Amino acid sequence: MRLISGNSVARFSASQSDVAVFEALGSAPAASFHHALRWYNQIASYGSDKTALPGVKPTLEAAPANDDDDDVDLFGSDDEEVSHR
Q1: What's the rounded Cα separation, in Å, for the pair 8 and 17?
Q2: Where in the sequence does UniProt note compositional bias of the Acidic residues kind (predicted)?
């Protein structure tokens, strides 16, 4: 999201893209995320008027969890363990 130089997710005014992200978050971000919290509070201020914002609300799906951090082998070895002879 480009929240430092703009006020919304996709453009300079709030849209249904903002509403989709707002709803996906579920709760306000931590105060340490200044720009995200400002954006969240701005979208929350629309209240029930969020449905009147322009655009088509996209469907957001969570990315699949990827626990496998062994897929990149920076040293070019083919074995899980290094064999010493």
Answers
A1: 9
A2: 66-85
